[in-house]
Amino acid sequence: MKRLMDLVLVLATAPMWLPLFLVTAAVAYGVQRRVLFVQERAGMDGRPFRLLKFQTMTDERNAAGDLLPDADRITPFGARLRSTSLDEIPQLFNVLIGDMSLIGPRPLHVRYVSRYSPRQRTRLAVRPGITGWAQVNGRNSLTWADRLELDAWYVENRSLALDAKILFMTVQAVVRRDGVSHQDAATMYEFMGDDDVSEVQSADKAATSADPSAADPVASNKSG
Q1: Is the CB of residue 49 less than 8 Å from the CB of residue 40?
Q2: Number of Cβ atoms within 10 Å of the Cβ of 32
Q3: DSSP of 25-40
Q4: Residue 24: HSE in the Cβ half-sphere, 13 Å Cα cutoff
């Protein structure tokens, strides 16, 4: 049912997002000569797929051959795309071909899969989404423990009603430009595993404050 709803919504809104995609692609090519960023991410059940985004950063490296920090590589045009979330538009094609859903945990790097705790791994039980419960409750301003706990809570409590709520909250978050960057960083820092005790202790509080009905989301065993 959810897959059908994804297809209906993406196809029905194509007259709105497809011209925006084409215009943004044309401007991106004119400004930076690079249009799409393609990267392997972990999809449902951890299966790799090729994520599409508009290119927002350069590949500039230092003298040692290492990539410069993200903040130094984001182009002015890319910064505008990120601030409005327009860089995510190409992922609608990922939804059409079945790699992603409109709503679900954000697709993360394949290398993160082996670092998940058993609970964090539950995020792989569903298709990754363009937006999700963590994105409307803090996005990149969350710690990894908080973000992954919110993903696990979503998987346990997922429903069409919750997805509709997330879509509505996403529009609000995009308009307010909430949580685009993590504190002073341009992008989310690397996830190295659930070793930070302070982050683990804050995870329950993040899920509960995001939805008062989730008084004990860690203990919940609802399948949704």
Answers
A1: yes
A2: 17
A3: HHHHHHHHS--EEEEE
A4: 23
* Dist. CA 209–CA 153, nearest whole Å: 12
Nearest to 86 by CA among 184, 10, 177, 183: 177
Q: How far is CA 10 from CA 21, 48, 210, in A?
A: 13, 22, 27
Q: Report pTM.
A: 0.79
Q: In a 3-state reduction of DSSP, which class is residue 175?
A: helix
Q: How far apart are CA 191 and CA 93, in angstroms?
A: 27
Q: Which residues contact 1 (CB under 8 A, 6 or more apart)?
A: 160
Backbone phi, then psi, for 161, in 5-degree steps? -65, -40
How far, in Å, CA of 14 to CA of 20, rounded? 10
* CB within 8 Å of 5: residues ≥ 6 apart: 102, 160, 163
Look up residue 123 and give its two tokens: 């995020």
Give, for all 224 residues of the chain, the pLDDT tens digit. Answer: 899 999 999 999 999 999 999 999 999 999 888 899 999 999 999 999 999 999 999 888 988 888 888 888 889 999 999 888 899 999 999 999 999 999 999 999 999 999 999 999 999 999 999 999 998 988 767 889 999 999 999 999 999 999 999 999 998 877 776 655 444 445 677 899 865 434 444 444 444 445 544 433 333 333 34
